[in-house]
Design a protein that fits this description.
Elements (H helix, E strand, L loop, with lengths): L4 E5 L7 H8 L5 E4 L8 E5 L2 E5 L12 E4 L4 E2 L1 H13 L8 E4 L3 E2 L2 H14 L11 H9 L6 H5 L2 H18 L7 H15 L3 E2 L1 H10 L4 E4 L24 H7 L8 E7 L2 E3 L11 H10 L12 E3 L1 E2 H11 L3 E5 L9 E10 L2 E3 L7 H4 L2 E8 L16 H14 L3 E5 L7 E3 L4 H5 L6
Parallel strand pairs: 1-10, 1-11, 2-5, 2-10, 5-7, 6-8, 7-9, 11-15, 14-16, 15-19
Antiparallel strand pairs: 3-4, 12-13, 16-17, 16-18, 19-20
Bound molecules: inosinic acid.
């Protein structure tokens, strides 16, 4: 029996999940996304060519792999078609391999506008969203007025009523707005026609896949600290990016998840607003940003950079039941005279070692750091632990101790091959099975 595993972000996103998913995909028959939308951006390099995928799982680059967009995802049909067309130009066909849940909610054209408006209304308290309409689409879903993929293919009268009601609600929200519902309705019908071949009962397909003994990878987008419930609320995305989102976002039972791999960078980054306790400024931040190419894959925004925060990763490990860490971008730290690990925060309420719910505790918090010597021999491109300089190995060992989880994968460069898989780790077990 194969193990189905979850690969998800352990920090604030952009941990390099794309590469890890891509590397593990040959061992799985299916890759399924369970939340988020085209706010995500997975950058993958294959033979030196750069691919950025936003909505479709990066497994699509592997022939024969089925890629699923679950009901927990919010789908912007235009973004989906754009990605399918781009893949087509690169010679990757999706037909027969891409499935979109009939229950997934649709991002409507004006959700984007509402996203921007809501940010403007928040002023200085803005979230720093990706302006993709993600939040407003989930608001409509939870408000029970959302439009699902199956609605585009069902009763036209019912869809017309829903769209009319939605557009008038939107018109009431935006001053002096008189958007006509009919063009929106016509566009949705056309979108439904194009999506039709991909639409499926995703829960049933996954059940059949797993019953046939084939293994599935559940691919998270964003990350645990951006989770609507467990992240740094309100500076979060509007879905459950942590492990719980898998069951609700795909219609699979908890027992289906046999392993959890949390992806964490060897330092920390974040885009958008909200607390980042280990944030650096000045030369060091600039050094990490430039060496790590820390610019948003979706929006191009410069990412905020800081030291590795073990309080955050230990928290993620608890929330997700992480079996192992995939530690990425270790090579970005190459050449630094010293490296630091955050093991607690000095706050107005004393030293805190568990991630707090009340963000006010973090406002003036000072990280408690352990400082270790850096390494001058590069780790870049290493494929075995023994190839790493002793100082880098000591850093990883200490990072594992303070995070409470071991590294199953260490990534030492952006290419698929620049990777160490720790022997005897759960990851070595998951990848021991023959390539699909
Ligand atoms: P939204 O998901 O566009 O509503 O944005 C909410 C927050 O999540 C903002 O801080 C975004 O920068 C952040 N966010 C959304 N998607 C990603 C991602 O894929 N990587 C990193 N941050 C993200």
């Amino acid at each position: 029996m194969q193990t189905n595993i979850a690969v998800l972000g352990a920090q604030w996103g952009d941990e390099g999940k794309g590469k890890i998913v891509d590397m593990l995909t040959p061992h799985f028959s299916t890759v399924a996304r369970y939340q988020g939308g085209h706010n995500a951006g997975h950058t993958v390099y294959v033979d030196g060519k750069k691919f950025v995928l936003h909505l479709i799982p990066s497994g699509i680059l592997h022939p024969g792999v089925t890629c699923i967009i679950g009901n927990g995802v919010v789908v912007d049909p235009e973004a989906l078609f754009k990605e399918v067309d781009e893949l087509g130009r690169l010679g990757v066909t999706v037909d027969g391999r891409l499935l979109v849940s009939e229950k997934a909610h649709v991002i409507l054209p004006y959700h984007r506008e509402l996203d921007v408006l809501s940010e403007a209304r928040r002023g200085e308290r803005k979230i720093g969203t990706t302006s993709r309409g993600i939040g407003p689409a989930y608001e409509d879903k939870i408000g029970r007025r959302g439009i699902r993929v199956c609605d585009l293919l069902g009763d036209r009268e019912a869809l017309a009523t829903e769209v009319r009601e939605n557009v008038s609600a939107r018109n009431r929200m935006i001053k002096d707005s008189t958007l006509d519902w009919q063009p929106v309705f016509q566009q949705l019908l056309a979108h439904g026609e194009r999506m039709k071949p991909w639409v499926a009962d995703v829960s049933l397909v996954l059940h059949q896949t797993m019953s046939a003994g084939k293994s599935v990878m559940f691919e998270g987008a964003q990350a645990t600290l951006l989770d609507i419930d467990h992240g740094t609320y309100p500076f979060v995305t509007s879905s459950n990016a942590s492990v719980g989102g898998i069951c609700t976002g795909l219609g699979v039972p908890p027992k289906a998840i046999g392993g959890v791999l949390g992806v964490a960078k060897a330092y920390t980054t974040r885009v958008g607003e909200g607390p980042l306790p280990t944030e650096l400024s000045g030369e060091l931040a600039e050094r990490l940003r430039e060496t790590g190419q820390e610019y948003g894959a979706s929006t191009g925004r410069p990412r905020r950079c800081g030291w590795y925060d073990a309080v955050v990763v230990r928290y993620s490990a608890r929330i997700n039941g992480m079996d192992a860490i995939a530690l990425t971008k270790l090579d970005v730290l190459d050449g630094l005279p010293e490296v630091r690990l955050c093991v607690g925060y000095k706050t107005s309420a004393g030293v805190v070692t568990e991630f707090p719910a009340d963000l006010r505790l973090l406002v003036d918090a000072e990280p408690v750091y352990e400082t270790m010597p850096g390494w001058s021999t590069p780790t870049k491109g290493a494929t075995r632990i023994e190839e790493l300089p002793a100082q880098a190995r000591r850093y990883i060992t200490r990072l594992e101790e303070v995070s409470g989880v071991s590294c199953g994968v260490i990534s030492t460069g952006s290419d698929r091959n620049e990777t160490i898989v720790a022997p005897e780790s759960p990851v070595a077990r998951w990848t021991a099975s023959p390539v699909r």
